[in-house]
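Reading a protein record of the kind used here takes little practice once its layout is understood. The reader may check this reading against the record printed directly beneath this paragraph.
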Amino acid sequence: MQVPGPLKTLFSYFPLYTHPPLNAKRNSTLEGPTIWARLSKGNNSADAVLSSDVECLKWQAYLALRGLSGIRVRFDVDAQGAIDGRLPNLHVPFDASATYSWSADNNKKSSTGPIDDSTELLSAPHIVEWVDAKLAHSALDDAWEGYKDEAAKDESRAWVSLLEGNVHAALLLSQPAQSFLESLLAPPSPPSTSLESILVPPPPPSTGFLSLLPSYSFTLFSPFGNTSNTTGSVRISSATKISVFQKYSDAIKALSERLGTDKWFLGSEYPTPLDALTFAYLHCILQSSEAVRKEVTRRVNLVAWELRVRAMVKAAFNRA
């Protein structure tokens, strides 16, 4: 049966070309541990190795301050391609001789998984155990987990709460709200802890006429991953914002006074996880808006400390 002339003429405008098949399995090997992280906002240069996301940067700093180097970093992996939809992930060569807690589970937990026959992918909670096995040393084996005494170890818990509470809340509020068009075009993000759950006490829900107005929307970096977070029926009042920034100011002041001229926080001889977390927040604050940045820039010791630690962290990473 022949194709009718008019139809053949129509098909001629849509020619079909054939191309040789692509080799999907490239013979590429993992050159070394590679962390998948979010790229720095507004910095797409080839030498950019630090993420602008607090959670990703915290783990980058943790790896560097534990003494690892030559770590590669990838910014081309979307969070949807990560384990549980959350970055960072650590892509490492498979080590059959190492004994990991997740290796005991034959059904591979969702927080870990094989990439191929020679590598595996780890979620953030497993990075500590991987580093311990890599260095054949755990901070838990040290007296007071690396802090100078029992009191300093207990105090470190309070500083973590302060950073992930008052400081993080101010960092969230300092970011511009996502426009309606951006919210439509942005890819879906995993759920995370909302802003109102960080505030103590939480803000009251809107009532009356204000409850009919659309709520604020935030798309920001956080210790729980990049989120598109809508506050629902909760509206952040001006009084609440003033309170948040006042607590933030007090927290930064206390942080500066506690650091003083010490090399590491709480007078530790070597860097601790608290130093990694503190660096992540200070670096992100210095890249943020003037509303929060000014509280850090007016304190010379914090700026100098962040600059010194930043050089150490950057030196540990290379772009993949």
